[in-house]
């Protein structure tokens, strides 16, 4: 017969509770209209989402970081090689998310 330890102590980090807030919560969400500091919801406002809307992360990156790709300053939207704004589906260059402090998803 072998005696094995019944259970290892639970690491404290797992008990710490809520995950850290996403930095994009500092800005208002242009998609679902969640206020600064509030978490995103679905458009109906009924379900609170754990991750902010992509449009909010884009707005946050735009407000926070200079874009290393197209060289625009904070608060200015990214531009393509022709000087046009990027499409809504991907309005910010990926490097700008990194610059703002979060790797691109
Ligand atoms: Zn949102
Ligand atoms: Zn850019």
Folded structure, characterized:
The N and C termini lie far apart (50 Å). Helix 1 (54-64) crosses helix 2. The protein has helices at 54-64, 94-100. It contains two helices and no strands. The chain is elongated and about 75 Å long. 17% of the residues lie in helices and 0% in strands. With 105 residues, the protein is mainly α. One zinc ion binds next to loops.
What characteristics describe this protein?
single chain, 105 residues, mainly alpha, binds zinc ion
Report helical residue fraction: 10-25%
Large-scale geometry: elongated
Count every helix, treating DSSP H or I runs of 4 or more residues as helices: 2
Structural class: mainly alpha
Q: Span from first to last CA?
A: 50 Å
Order of helices and strands: HH
Low-confidence stretches: none
Strand content: under 5%
* Ligands bound to this protein structure: zinc ion
What is the gyration radius calculated from CA atoms?
Answer: 19 Å
The biggest sheet amounts to:
none
Q: Mean pLDDT score, rounded?
A: 86
**What's the total count of β strands?**
0
Quick recap:
The protein is mainly alpha-helical and 105 residues long.
């Amino acid at each position: 017969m072998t005696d094995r330890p019944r259970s290892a102590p639970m690491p404290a980090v797992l008990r710490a509770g809520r995950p850290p807030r996403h930095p994009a919560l500092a800005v208002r969400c242009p998609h679902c209209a969640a206020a600064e500091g509030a978490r995103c919801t679905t458009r109906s406002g009924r379900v609170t989402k754990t991750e902010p809307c992509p449009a909010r992360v884009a707005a946050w990156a735009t407000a926070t970081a200079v874009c290393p790709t197209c060289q625009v300053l904070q608060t200015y939207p990214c531009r393509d090689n022709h000087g046009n704004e990027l499409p809504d589906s991907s309005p910010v260059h990926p490097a700008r998310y990194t610059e703002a402090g979060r790797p691109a998803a």
